[in-house]
Amino acid sequence: MNRSQLIEELRRVVGPKAVVSNPHDLMTxxxxxxxxxTGDPHVVVLPxxxxxxxxxxxxxxxxxxxxxxxxxxxxxxxxxxxxxxxxVISTARMDKIIQVDTKNGRVxxxxxxxxxxxxxxxxPYGYQFAPDPSSQKACTIGGNIxxxxxxxxxxxxxxxxxxxxxxxxxxxxxxxxxTGEGSPAEPGYDLTGIVTxxxxxxxxITAAWLRLTRLPExxxxxxxxxxxxxxxxxxxxxxxAGGFLPSALEIMDRLAIKAVNDMYQLGLPASxxxxxxxxxxxxxxxxxxLLTDITAxxxxxxxIEVRPARTLAEQNQVWAARKNAFGAMGRLAxxxxxxxxxxxxxxxxxxxxxxxxxxxxxxxPIANVFHAGDGNLHPIILFDRRDSSQNQRALEAATSVMHxxxxxxxxxxxxxxxxxxxxxxxxxxxxxxxxxxxxxxHQSFDPHDLFxxxxxxPKGRGCGELAALRRAGTAWAELKGV
Amino acid sequence: xxxxxxxxxxxxxxxxxxxxxxxxTMQTLNHQLAAIVGPAHLSEDGAPFAVxxxxxxxxxxxxxxxxxxxxxxxxxxxxxxxxxxxxxxMQSWGRPxxxxxxxxxxxxRLDKILIYEPDDLTISVQxxxxxxxxxxxxxxxxxxxxxxxxxxxxxxxxxxxxxxMDGPRRLGYGSARDLVIGIQxxxxxxxVSKAGGMVVKNVSGFDMMKLYLGxxxxxxxxxxxxxxxxxxxxxAASLSCRFARPEGAFALAxxxxxxxxxxxxxxxHEGQSALADSPGAASMFTLEVRVEGLAAAVERHxxxxxxxxxxxxxxxxxxxxSGSPEVEPLWALHNNLPQTLERDDNELVLRxxxxxxxxxxxxxDARALxxxxxxxxxxxxxxxxxxxxxxxxxxxxxxxHAAMLERWPHITLLAAPVxxxxxxxxxxxxxxxxxxxxxxxxxFDPDNLLNPGRFVV
Lengths: 482, 457
Hints:
Chain A has 18 helices and 20 strands. By secondary structure, chain A is an alpha+beta fold. The two termini of chain A are 35 Å apart. With 457 residues, chain B is α+β, with helices and mostly antiparallel strands. The chains are: A alpha+beta (482), B alpha+beta (457).
C-alpha cells in the first residue's frame, strides 16, 4: 500500500483537516477502553456525511486496507482498536440530532451523538432514549448500536436492539442503505436487528432512527444496605422470582462503596458490605406499595438499612455514584480489568461467592458494581499493570470468572461486546457450526473482510475461512470439532 | 449432425432422464425418511398439508432435532425442497411455493419444554409446542409470554417466530423480537446451529435470532427457542371505548401516546364490535385499552382512560374490571382477527405496516377504497404501533390491493382467494434492500430448497 497516496486521496474526500496521519496524533487512537490490546491505525479520518464515509470505504476497498469504525472509544473489548492497522473512521464529527418526531415515537440522529446528550436533549419533549450505559456521558449512539449496549435500565426497558428502528448504513462496496425508519413490520429480513450488535464488522452506521421512550410519571429510588454481597444478591434473585418489575436493580460491593463514598458524599456506613440500588418507575399509583414489598424482601435477606432518596437531587446523587463507580476505581488501584458476563438470575448468589473465591485464589482485590437484576456481573479486578505477575494473575482471574459463569449457564458478554478481548472465549460457548452460521451472515455483508477484521471470531479461525468451510457442506461433518 | 437435430434429441433425453431421476429420487427419499422417522411418522397423504392448493409428496414428522436434521439433510442431498410445518395456522402467508414436488417437515413432535427455571423468568422450548400449551405451563407459575397469537391451541412457537406474528400487547411488552433470547436452527444442509443463550442480556456473537425471526423458514428451520418471560400481572382490566367515527378513536389513542399512562395494549377495531351483544355494532369504531400491573395502577388507568375517552367524545365506555370474565374472550377475538385458517372463499387477509402516526390515514384509504369497490372491511390495528390487520370480502379485491399498494408500500398478503395469491405482490412493494437480502439467502440456502418462492427472497 502506498500510504502517502492513500492519505492524499483521503484528504481530497474529507478535507485536509479531517485526516489524522501524524504518528504522534495517531497515538490517541491506539486503543479504546480496553487497554490490554493496542494497535496503531495507518490513518484516522473524521467524515461528516454518509457520502464521505462511502467514498472512504471505496478508497479502503481499492487500497485493500481495513476500516475500523470508532465512536468515543469507550468500549471495553477492543472493538474500536485497529489491530491490523488501516483506516479508523471516527464518527466524532457526525454529532447532530437531526429530527425529533414524537408523533411517531422516534428521533433521527447521527452516530457521533453522545448518549447522555441525546437524553438531555429529549427531556424537554418528555422523552428519553432508554438505553443508558454507565459510560453514557462519553459514549456515542453509533457505539451503543454497534455493541447493542446495555445499562441499568435494560432491566425494564430492554437492550439497545429494542430501541433502534433503522439505521443508515454504508456497505463494503460503498453503497448507502437504510434498513428501516420505524414502520414495525416491513417484509424482508430484519437488517436493523442484524446490524445492531455486529460490532462494526458488517458496515458503518451513519445515521439512526431511535425509539423514543416516554419519561415516567414517577420515579422512586431506594438504597438498601447489606452486611455482605450474599444478602444483596439473594434479595435480587427473590425480587426477580417474585415477579416484581423494578426499573433498575444495581449492586455495589464494599470496595466499590469505598471508592464512591467519599467522592459523592454518600455517607454510607463502613459496615455496609453491599448496597443495592432499587429504582421503580411508572404511574404514581401503586409505586410505594411496590417499593414496600421490595424493601420487605431486602429486610428478610438481612438488609441493615433502607434509605430512600427523597428528592430528585438525592436520586441523581445516588445514580451518579453508581454510574461513575468505574471511574472511581482509580482511587483503589492503578489499573482495573472489568469483566462482563451474565448468569441466570437464580445463580447470582453462588456466582458472586465464586467471584470472592477467585479474588482470594489470585490474590487480587475484586470490586463489584453490576446490573444485578439482569444477572449481568461486572467483577472489576484491581491490579498494577507494571507488575507482570499481577498482570498475569488478573488475566487468569478473568478467565476463571468466565469459566464459572459458563458453568452456571451464563455467557461471555452481556453488554460490552466480544471485540478482541473475548474472541478466544467464543469457542467456550459456541460450536464451529454456530460460529460458521455467524460467519456466513458476515460474508453476505462483507465478503472481503473490510470492516473491523480480526474481531469477534476466534483468532486463527477467520470469518472467511469459517464461511468457506460451511459452504463446502458435505465435508463439514469431518471438520466438526476441529 | 445438424445443430437443430442435436437440440431436438438432447431435449428428449433431458426430459426423460429428468423424470426418471425424479421418480428414483422420490422413491429413495421416501425410504430414507422412513428409516429416519419411522414409517408411522412418514405420510404420503399430503392433501391435509396442501399449501396454496399444492400438496407435499411426503410429510415427515421427526421426533428429535437429530431426526429433523437428518430429514433436512436427506432432502438437501436429493435436492428436494422442504417446507417447515408447525400447526399450519399461517401457511397461507406469502406467495405460492415455486416447487412442484416437496416435503413437509412437521415440528409437532418437537413439543417439549427443554429448560424452565421459573425463578430465572426464562424458558427454552421446542418449536412444535403449541402456544396455548406453553401458556398453561407458564400460568401455573404465575408467568407469561405476552405474544397473543391467533389460534393459540394450534399455533406453534416455531411458526410464531418464523412469521414474526405479533399481538395487541406488543405495545406494553414488545414483540417476539424483544423477547427471544436464544435459538436453535436446522439449516438447509441439515447442519444444526444455535445462537444466544438463557440469559436476558447477551452480546456474545451476532444476534442471529433477529435474522431468523420473521424469515418464514427460508434460512433454516427453527427447532427450539429461548424466551425471557414476564410475571403475570397482579391485576388486569379493559376498557372498550366506542366512537361514532374513527377520528374520535384515534384522537383518544393520540392522547394516550402523549400521556404517561402505560397501557399494555391500545387496539383499534372497526367493522364489527368485539362485544357481540352491542346494538348497532357494525357502524361502530372502538378503541380497546388493556391495562395490566399493580392493582392501584390499574384502577388509576381505568379512571383516567374513561375520562380521556369521554373528553374525546366516546359514545360509550364499557369497563371490564379486573377479574371480569369478559376480558379474555374480548381479547381472544382481537388476537384472532388476523387468523387465516378459517375464511370465506372471497376473503383477503392482510397486514399493513406504516409509521404509527400514518395509521389513521392509511385506514382512511383502506376504508374509502373498500367502499368504492364494494368490499366489506373488518380490521384491527395496534393503534400506537403502526400495524393493522385487514380482512376484506368481495369481488374487486385485486383492484383494491393495487390502489392501496400505490399509497402504502408495506402490505403483506396473509391469505387470499385461490388464484389471487399468485397474482398479487404478496410482500408489498419490492423492499429497498433486496440485493442484500438475496445475498443472505444465497449464503444460507444456495440451492433455494427452503420454502422456495414463498418469501420476499
